[in-house]
């Protein structure tokens, strides 16, 4: 299957290509209060709002450079089942073809790097389990 | 008073006696009428009167002679207070007068001798005191002479040492004069070199002005190159932005191609190619930007170097100005030093001559001190001998004093009348 590969928190991740709506850059991100730290804010793209998730923070790397600046970064827009998410990776690899149809697996690519396949629902459900409210200082 | 000799007295006495005898004979003859009787009576009378007259006469003579003898005995015992009475009117009076004269002369002599003895004793006492003082003084003189001899010896040694030191000092000063002459020649050379240095510094300053002017002219293209590189950088930013947009566009194209499924595969290939071109363009843009950055960096370094060079040249110009001024001051100072060292050389030469004169005086002084040392040693020996002689003289004085005391004691045996 075709997977959109990217790198975040020092590992390669992949999302099935059918969920990827668009890749954009230089869009203003509006922060939202009382959201988890990995929630960078909202972006508005062609009449639709996307929740922006900083993947580095989402995966546990709290000191990500991109997470700090959020400027000039590229954002992957996902759309599936009337849901919309925007992911901020550290690096975008692009569309790659891998020999598996199961999500949640880790597969070896031709370059020798391991790519973990994830679904937008995994991100969404994990996001609902996060702490909401005032951030602890 | 008329003087009568003993002879006349005897004649007169005999004549008186004869007159008395004749008178008695005449009276007896007249009264008795007997010649023989008269003669006998007159003989008896004559004998009686002769005995009486003889006794009176002899007593008179003996008494005066005894008086003289008694006086002579007392005089011989030393009693010169006796008075000789001039009672006689005959030859004994001459004896009495001679005796009285002799006594007077003797008194005068004894008195004079006593006076002289006392004077001798006093003089001797004073002389003894003086001799004692002279002895003490002589001992002091002896000590002083020894001290002077020691001082003279030290003086001689010091004079000799001073002479040696002055000779070495003179050598040092002569060496200094030679060094001064050498220094004068060196300073003269330094003066010439300083003048040459000043001239060279002025030439360097002139060349530096030219170099600075040329550097300002040559640095103009470098400044304009910097502006052009900045413009290229702006263009490269546009190219980079286009490459990024192309990259995103190709990514989205590949996403759309994936969504199109089998029909979009060809489009996906094109999108990949476009993305690859965008990546190449971006990489090239990055390389060009890097090259531009390096060029700009080099250009900035060149401008900075030029600025520093210009600053350095400006400072160098100021420094060379200072060097020229310093050379001028040095030249002035070297000239002053030259004149001062020249003066020092002359003064040192004069000092050497004066030192030579002083050395001659010191050597003469040393010679005199040596002679003085010998003389003081002789003086010391002479004072020692003098001390011995004075001691002998003191001993003689003491014996003389004893003799004068004995003489006074002897003279005290003579008794003089109380005046």
Characterization of the model:
The complex is a heterodimer of chains A (137) and B (419). Chain A is mainly beta and 137 residues long. Chain A has a single domain, classed as Beta Barrel (OB fold (Dihydrolipoamide Acetyltransferase, E2P)). Chain A is globular, with a radius of gyration of 15 Å. In chain A, the strands form 2 sheets. Chain A has a 5-stranded mixed β-sheet. The N and C termini of chain A lie far apart (44 Å). Chain A has 3 helices and 10 strands; from the N terminus they run βββββααβββββα. Chain B is 92% helix and 0% strand. The model of chain B has no long low-confidence stretch (mean pLDDT 82). Chain B has helices at 6-32, 35-76, 91-260, 265-411. Chain B is mostly helical and 419 residues long. The interface between A and B is medium-sized, with 14 and 12 residues.
What are its keywords?
heterodimer; A: 137 residues; mainly beta; OB fold (Dihydrolipoamide Acetyltransferase, E2P); five-stranded mixed beta sheet; 3 helices; 10 strands; 13% helix; globular; B: 419 residues; 4 helices; 0% strand
Task: Chart the SSEs and their pairings.
The complex is a heterodimer of chains A (137) and B (419).
Chain A: E1 2-8, E2 11-16, E3 20-25, E4 39-45, E5 48-54, H1 55-58, H2 65-69, E6 74-80, E7 83-88, E8 91-97, E9 106-108, E10 114-118, H3 120-128
Chain B: H1 6-32, H2 35-76, H3 91-260, H4 265-411
Gross geometry of chain B: rod-shaped
Order of the strands making up the biggest sheet of chain A = 8-1-2-10-9
In the CATH hierarchy, what is the architecture of chain A at level 2? Beta Barrel
Regions with little confidence, pLDDT below 50 for 5+ residues of chain A: none
Which radius of gyration of chain A do the C-alpha atoms yield? 15 Å
Mean pLDDT of chain B: 82
- Rounded to the nearest angstrom, the distance between the terminal CA atoms of chain A is 44 Å
Written as H for each helix and E for each strand, in order along the chain, the element string of chain B is HHHH
Give the % helix of chain B: over 70%
Helix and strand content put the structural class of chain B at mainly alpha
How much helix is in the residues of chain A? 10-25%
Mean pLDDT of chain A: 83
Largest interface, counted by CB within 8 Å of the partner chain's CB = A-B, 14 and 12 residues
